[in-house]
Amino acid sequence: MKENKLKFNSIVIHGGQAPDKAYGAVMPPIYQTSTYAQKSPGEHLGYAYSRSANPTRSALEKSLASIENGEYGLAFASGLAAIDAVLKLLNPGDEVIATNDLYGGSYRLFNRIFEKYGLVFHYVDMQNANTIETLITLKTKLIWLETPTNPMMNIIDIAAVAAMTKKHHLLLAVDNTFASPYLQQPLNLGADIVMHSATKYLGGHSDVVLGALVVNDIDLADKLYFIQNASGAVSGPMDSFLVLRGIKTLHVRMQRHCENGSIIAHYLAEHPKVEKVYWPGFENHPNYSIAKKQMKAFGGMISFIPKGSTYTDAKRIVENLNVFTLAESLGGVESLVGHPASMTHASIPKEEREKVGVVDALIRLSVGIEDVSDLIADLEQALK
Ligand code: P1T
Fold this sequence. Notes:
Layout: H1 8-14, H2 55-67, E1 72-76, H3 79-87, E2 95-99, H4 104-114, E3 120-124, H5 130-133, E4 140-146, H6 158-167, E5 171-175, H7 180-183, E6 193-197, E7 211-215, H8 218-231, H9 237-247, H10 250-270, E8 274-278, H11 288-294, E9 301-306, H12 311-320, E10 325-326, E11 336-338, H13 350-355, E12 363-366, H14 372-383
Parallel strand pairs: 2-3, 2-4, 4-5, 5-6, 10-11
Antiparallel strand pairs: 1-7, 6-7, 8-9, 9-12, 11-12
The site of ligand P1T has 20 residues, from helix 3 and helix 4.
């Protein structure tokens, strides 16, 4: 199959995939094995031990690389395990500049685990790429960004940041979880590493926790592969299979997430009981022009603040939604609602999170692919 000739909607289905060699199975079998018979010491069929490599994981890793238009994919036990592997590229004393609005678990990993081992983190609003430059020192090694950011939906200009990291010889890693490669492909915009919580849109069905990295540079891939094998936080065969299956419908799911997201964002913006809506598809969103330039559409993630702007107002709404399930996570076929301050971002100190807008009244929606009229009706009754 000449994959490089295929369009994205075909790559999600065929990218890096070939019928299984043993019996021609169209989907890669779940190779639920820890080890592989060897004819003589070191003489095997390409697989020796499943931490180092497993055929189902390899199939997923090839798919991950192809959907991000990269060369090398690596699958991990979770999104955080993938981020953990990237940080292990660094040495004590090295500095990282990260988005000031990012997933609470990433912040916790940076501050509570890696700071202990001597890494230094700076958090900055990256909506203006120039603000990053003021923090660069000789010790800066990595720029970590999310776009759209979780949960404020700020958009960061990946190409502008990449131009700056190239100038200073820094690594640029982009957490592409919220957008998915359907909406943007950071490697094409100059990033060195793209990371996913594949638990979200790539898996797409809220039935698996998995993380991914994709890179183009072989030396970087080798270093990450060494860390993946040496630290051992690999994805299991069943989980790898589930994400591979999810990826095959990514394009059709994303199309509907975006359609429903747009309808709901506009509905909320017009609603008298809603104070403020955060969604990058509004023309008055501060980063609308960048979103339009770097994303194919604007996604199904929306945050909003109800009128009254208190925790009680937010609590009443999230408790009264029925079709939207109150739960952590996002990106599955079903609509979810979250309360970032007490759930996904609870590990960030209140003063820090409020500085970027994660106030107690903020509600986050992951708009699913249900019939949009049912979602609107659910929001309508809860807002009442
Ligand atoms: O949960 P895990 O697969 O380990 O991925 C962590 C992660 C990394 N990056 C982003 C942008 C994320 O949103 C997440 C996980 N986020 C949630 C669970 C959430 O509800 O926001």
